[in-house]
């Protein structure tokens, strides 16, 4: 059953993105892209990081962006226009946007992530993204019957700033405020972009300052 749900999740993510960017929706996409790049920094299309950046944007656009302040996020509008089962709807309405570390492969050959911001471990349904153990990154997971699906948009951070970011996570976690969490995670994406602009020559610790 989980594999079937997993396939439905991927289908609806792709369908929501397609439907929301057709016709006049394309104007909304361009506006959203401008807003996202202002929050996280722009990057050249020829950069090796560009595809990762656009995957992050797509996830942010679907799960967080609203065409107008009075309207819900794109994915919620998609759900309102489609008759989906409650189990599928619940997956999309509670995304987990966080800072993660790829911990290990467990005895069941499952990928285990450490959710650093929320201080818990997660087991993935399957690993579809090229990560290696000890990578730490900003990303989003969707929970499917107590298992987790990692979305494609990930922002891998320099390993030398893991301690700095982890300590700051404790401060953000105490606030218990989703808005503060989102702002912090978008800031991490911005600082990663800023670091890339220096060609990775500058010590990342001098850039990741909060």
Shape: globular
Biggest sheet architecture: 6 strands, antiparallel
Strand residues, percent = 15-25%
> Got a strand count?
6
Low-confidence stretches: none
CATH class of the largest domain: Mainly Beta
CATH topology of the largest domain: OB fold (Dihydrolipoamide Acetyltransferase, E2P)
**How many structural units, i.e. domains?**
2
Q: DSSP helix count?
A: 7
Distance between the termini: 43 Å
Share of helix, binned: 40-55%
Structure description:
With 210 residues, the protein is an alpha+beta fold. The protein folds into 2 domains: 2-92, no CATH class; 95-206, Beta Barrel (OB fold (Dihydrolipoamide Acetyltransferase, E2P)), CATH 2.40.50. The protein contains 7 helices and 6 strands. Strands 1, 2, 3, 4, 5 and 6 form a 6-stranded antiparallel β-sheet that branches. β1 (96-105) and β2 form a beta hairpin.
